[in-house]
């Protein structure tokens, strides 16, 4: 008999790739898609309210990783791009799957930009150092 808990999605089986490199130390990822609307007067006769007309969407997210050294090259690429006023080509692939592995959901986010990032951060009395990266993306697709 299959237990109901095995059919649920949870973060334990989440995986993340940045520019096709798997990061084992990513332990939190959130991506939010916000629909944008333009509000206009209702064009129908006898209706005096307002209606919303779709006007695109925006993608924002954040990922948190525990620093283990695997992120150094990625941060160096971001820092070099910042110094030279460039936007590096970055994509993120995220995967969630059920506890029993029977179903998975993958999305790819392209044209990713990071608004800010901690190049260096440490705490004297902390066992782990975390790096949180807030990002925006231009497109997404289920893969």
Automatic annotation (TrEMBL):
Pfam families: DUF2001 (PF09393). It comes from the Bacteria. InterPro entries: DUF2001, XkdM-like_sf. This is Phage tail tube protein.
